[in-house]
Amino acid sequence: MKLQLSTWPEVEEYLAHSRAIVIPIGSTEQHGPTGMIGTDALCPEIVADGMAEKTRILIGPSLSIGMAQHHLAFPGSISLKPSTLVRVIGDVVESLSSQGFTHFFFLNGHGGNIASVQAAFSELWAASSFRAQASTVRLRLHNWFQGERVVRLSRQLFGDGEGSHATPSEISLVLSAYPEAARDVVLDPEQASTGPIRDAADFRRLHPDGRMGARSGLATADHGRRLREAAVADALDALEKFVSG
Ligand code: NI
């Protein structure tokens, strides 16, 4: 069930039996010469769609612009500052909690969002502490790419070619939903170098084609279909544990 495709009476009816919502959160940033700029936002959407096929859970609109300052030297990348993302997450949670939602499951597709999501959670807890009022809100961050089944499968499929940015896993997952979008580009070197993440100019200097440590050319739609199944199972397990408390 998608919030964007629902009416308010349908959401009111949903709230009568469930107070949980899945919020996909991603990023709009370069993913090397073969990965689409929407990769990090599309991945959690694809996983959320799979969750909705298996259980009646409300899927919120994707927060598709994240904390991606280090990609800004590549055209097409858009970033929120960490402090902006913290406020966006806080406003989303407070909007929905004012209507009775209590369980917020952030399904994340971008490592660069993790610190800001955790800071947003801390801000929300701090707000209820300073009001000295017990909050009914429950918050959970689930990174689809770190689920147990996903990690096992990507290790099996790609070994150390997984790398950390423009990974064959994330590109495969997108290709499972958009197979016609596969790019026929020769990547040189086949496996990109790794290194620290600082600012945008430094990132482009260290990682000139935008990849980090990844053999992105290993990505296929078939691998993506297996990863989707694994990611959906991981996310449903995590959601079940979260909601049952
Ligand atoms: Ni990514």
Walkthrough of the structure:
This protein has helices at 8-15, 39-54, 82-97, 114-131, 148-158, 168-177, 200-206, 221-244, and strands at 20-25, 58-59, 103-108, 138-143. The longest helix is centred in the C-terminal third of the chain and has 24 residues, at 221-244. Helix 5 (148-158) packs antiparallel against helix 8 (221-244) and helix 6 (168-177) packs across helix 8 (221-244). The relative contact order is 0.18. The radius of gyration is 18 Å and the shape is globular. It has a domain at 3-155 and 228-244: 3-Layer(aba) Sandwich (Rossmann fold). Strands 2-1-3-4 form a 4-stranded parallel β-sheet, with helices on both faces. Helix content is 45%, strand content 8%. The chain contains 8 helices and 4 strands; from the N terminus they run αβαβαβαβαααα. The chain is α/β, with parallel strands linked by helices. The structure holds nickel (II) ion (NI). Residues 31, 39-40, 110, 165, 170 line the site of nickel (II) ion.
Q: What distance lies between the first and last C-alpha atoms, to the nearest angstrom?
A: 22 Å
Q: If classified by CATH, what would the architecture of the domain at 3-155 and 228-244 be?
A: 3-Layer(aba) Sandwich
Largest sheet: 4 strands, parallel
Shape label: globular
CATH topology of the domain at 3-155 and 228-244: Rossmann fold
Q: Runs with pLDDT <50, length 5+?
A: none
Alpha-beta content class: alpha/beta
Q: Which whole number gives the mean pLDDT?
A: 97
Give the distinct bound molecules: nickel (II) ion
Alpha plus pi helix count = 8
Order of helices and strands: HEHEHEHEHHHH
Spatial strand arrangement across the major sheet: 2-1-3-4
- In CATH terms, the superfamily of the domain at 3-155 and 228-244 is Creatininase
